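Bumping with the actual sequence this time:
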Amino acid sequence: MFSQMIGLLNKSKITTRALSRKSDHYCRRFSTFQHLITMVYGVTSVCNSLRELCGGIVSYDHKISHCKFDYSPKRSTISDAKKRRDCTVFEDIYCDLVTEHLPDLSDSHKQGSSQ
């Protein structure tokens, strides 16, 4: 499921958004795109802490390397990125994804009301 979700992300569009919001300013390796897929992994793996998140990425490193992970971030790297990176870049990315994939999303309200 994680791989399918990551497959919907267009790295070049996310990088463009990051440049427009300057969210990768002062970041060397942990880009906005890497931050996004790390957090998506945390949500899909039901991680409750940064320790769990980093441990999961490290333990599945060889199995998820095809999912666009450049490296396994440390807890401090993720924590610093969460403090420094403005959340509006992720809001923009979300809006872009919804706009792009809205025609393909099912609408349960329409399906339920016609019955």
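The tokens above came from a reply further down the thread. The helical segments are 2-7, 11-21, 32-44, 50-59, 61-64, 75-84, 88-101, 108-113.
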